[in-house]
Specification:
This protein is an alpha/beta fold. About 45% of the residues lie in helices and about 15% in strands. The chain has helices at about 40-65, 70-85, 85-95, 100-120, 125, 130-145, 170, 195-200, 210-215, 235-260, 285-290, 315-325, 360-370, 370-385, 400-420, 435-440, 440-445, 455-465, 480-500, 510-520, 535-540, 545-555, 560-575, and strands at about 5, 10, 15-20, 160-165, 180-185, 205, 220-225, 230-235, 275-280, 295-300, 335, 390-395, 430-435, 450-455, 500-505, 525-530. The strands form two sheets. The protein has an eight-stranded mixed sheet with strand order 1-8-7-3-4-5-6-2. Helix 12 links the parallel strand 10 (about 295-300) and strand 11. Helix 20 crosses helix 22 and helix 22 runs antiparallel to helix 23 (about 560-575). The longest helix has 29 residues, at about 40-65. The protein starts with a strand and ends in a 12-residue tail after the last helix.
């Protein structure tokens, strides 16, 4: 067994602690027959497992309702109703009475139900497959007496490192930050949902470990290094002490960086860079506002939706948006409309697709569901009374989509006026540039919007045809590929010609080397994770925009992403030595 597992750094920080292994997958069940004399005992065993699973779901639901809210907890009510289904229970007991062991009988019935649901004509029924899988896992785990059957079996202050294959919505809503100190997953890359969530929660994380769940056991002591992307198994005392010294050093450096919160991000040759924060959850807003950010460049709103059985209503959305807007006291807050789809789906009501990243998602889904979309638009118009709210449309590829969204925004305002609800008459509207089509056609969009924001996570994915969540392709997901750099430069040039602001809000902006490249490409507004604001601010105060421009020009003409990175790295190091790499937190 390897002592050091290498993955992708997803969220910085070092944690030494025990593993909490979560194998949230359907276990393999042997085909086992029982004697006639054992049948009633097997039926009783099945009923007891269902009862225990039902009780467990009630406990989990109560815990999630207390920590995340009743809407998020609704997913567990759905799963409890499945356990109460008489048809399902009768089908299992009928197989048991044909001498099949309880776990195999339940496994057979659940596989049949999942296949039936997956092929159903109704999208809402198809989306229940995820809930059926959760129920399948939960009951089999009890029947087979398997360990670690629930992600919330941890006491407060456990300091555990959660190790799992991936984080599904039903697992995500159960995360207890008072018990879990770090996250490690087999799947994912640093721009996948779990990585973004970990940074949002301030939890150190390593993703893309591939086989950590097969190499580790619960209770194993490990060191998780979210800065380098490594997991050290069974560390020696000397190694533990060395990592703890590094953690202390990083904490000191972070405290020093926080002193930059009140300083301006101005390059040595006088170029002012606007730094804003990315906000994933409303409860992050207060801390993000203290980071030194000049507002919010991206508030993701799909976290109001993922893992829920129902969409949030207007009042709930209004409260969430208003909290963030008020925290930033008049500074701009750019809120992205629902980017539902891809790897971010609500629990019910939306169809599964064979290629979701190229499917019915983001602005496409919102425009096709105008009543759903207008609920969000009304909430945003109301929240705008609390400060400077600007809205951003995701995955736009055509000016027609912008015009259609503007019509719905006007209708939402009219509806609020008819109800006598105070609200802003309209909102500043912008779009995300996250496809080659949007970048190449940026001139057609610029005449219809007030700003363009480059979403590099998806722009890299779509330009290079590399799934950003696929750990097997992590080495091919190269944001510094010359083609990507040229598309960003194209967008910046269009913005300058049209008098439209251009920013970058993808994860690329949070990495020192890439932030250096973005400044060189002409970007003057960056939106980064709150923890990265002081880091990027320190970099901006150490570099020359002119040197960054020379470096970016060289990178754009390089033949490969590796060569482009070398051009940038050499010039950055020559300009500022190793200062730009201190407390980088992420590669770059």
């Amino acid at each position: 067994m390897e002592r050091v597992l290498a993955g992708s750094p997803a969220s910085p920080g070092i944690v030494v602690g025990p593993v909490h292994l979560l194998r949230w997958e359907v276990p393999e069940v042997r085909h086992t027959l029982v004697a006639d004399s054992e049948i009633e005992g097997e039926v009783a065993r099945f009923r007891d497992a269902v009862r225990r699973a039902h009780e467990r779901l009630a406990q989990v639901g109560e815990r999630v309702a207390a920590t995340a809210g009743p809407e998020e907890a609704a997913i567990f009510d759905v799963q409890r109703s499945m356990l109460e289904d008489a048809e399902l229970r009768n089908a299992v007991e009928a197989l048991v009475r044909q001498n099949l062991a309880a776990e195999k009988a339940f496994d057979v019935v659940m596989l049949e139900w999942r296949q039936h649901f997956a092929r159903h004509a109704q999208p809402m029924v198809r989306e229940r497959v995820g809930d059926l899988t959760d129920v399948h896992i939960r009951v089999l785990t009890l029947l087979m007496d398997l360990p670690d059957h629930d992600p919330v079996d941890l006491p407060k202050g456990a300091g555990a490192i959660l190790v799992t294959h991936d984080l599904t919505p039903s697992l995500t809503v159960q995360l207890d930050r008072d018990a879990i100190a770090a996250i490690a997953t087999d799947a994912g890359t640093r721009t996948s949902h779990v990585a973004i969530l970990a940074r949002s929660l301030g939890l150190p994380a390593v993703v893309g470990l591939r086989d950590a769940t097969t190499q580790l056991r619960s209770g194993d002591t490990v060191v998780l290094d979210g800065t380098s992307g490594q997991l050290v198994l069974k560390p020696t005392q000397a190694e533990v002490q060395a990592y703890r010294r590094r953690a202390q050093q990083e904490a000191v450096e972070e405290a020093e960086l926080l002193r930059l919160a009140t300083e301006d991000a101005v390059t040595v040759d006088g170029e002012r860079i606007t730094l804003r924060a990315n906000v994933d959850l409303p409860e992050e807003a207060e801390a993000a506002a203290q980071s030194g950010a000049d507002g919010v460049g991206l508030m993701r709103t799909e976290f109001l939706v993922v893992g829920r059985a129902t969409m949030p209503d207007e009042e709930e959305q209004y409260r969430a948006y208003a909290r963030v807007v008020e925290a930033f006291g008049g500074r701009p807050v750019v809120i992205r409309t629902f980017d539902i789809g891809g790897d971010k789906l609500p629990v019910g009501g939306f169809p599964s697709e064979p290629n979701p990243f190229l499917g019915w998602r983001a602005i496409r889904m919102c425009l096709d569901q105008p009543e759903l979309f207008k609920v969000q638009l009304r909430a945003l118009l109301r929240a705008a009374l609390h400060g400077d709210v600007r809205i951003m449309l995701p995955l736009v590829v055509s000016v027609d989509e912008v015009r259609a969204a503007r019509v719905l925004l006007h209708e939402a305002s009219v509806e609020l006026a008819a109800r006598g609800v105070p609200h802003a008459p309209t909102l500043v509207l912008g779009v995300m540039v996250e496809t080659p089509a949007a970048a190449v056609g940026a001139d057609t969009l610029a005449g219809e919007v007030s700003f363009l924001s480059v979403g590099t996570n998806d722009l890299v994915q779509y330009t290079l045809a590399v799934d950003r969540g696929n750990a097997n392709l992590a080495s091919r997901y190269t944001p510094l590929h010359p083609a990507v750099l040229r598309l960003i430069r194209r967008t910046v040039e269009v913005g300058a010609q049209s008098g439209v602001d251009v920013s970058v809000c993808g994860e690329m902006a949070s990495q020192t080397l890439m932030a250096f490249a973005l400044v060189g490409l002409g970007v003057r507004t960056l939106s980064v994770s709150p923890r990265s604001v002081p880091l990027v601010k320190r970099l901006m105060r150490a570099i020359s925009a002119a040197i960054a421009r020379e470096a970016a020009e060289a990178a754009m003409t390089a033949p490969t992403a590796v060569a482009a990175e070398q051009q940038l790295r050499q010039r950055l190091y020559a300009a500022v030595g190793d200062a730009a790499y201190l407390h980088a937190g992420l590669p770059g």
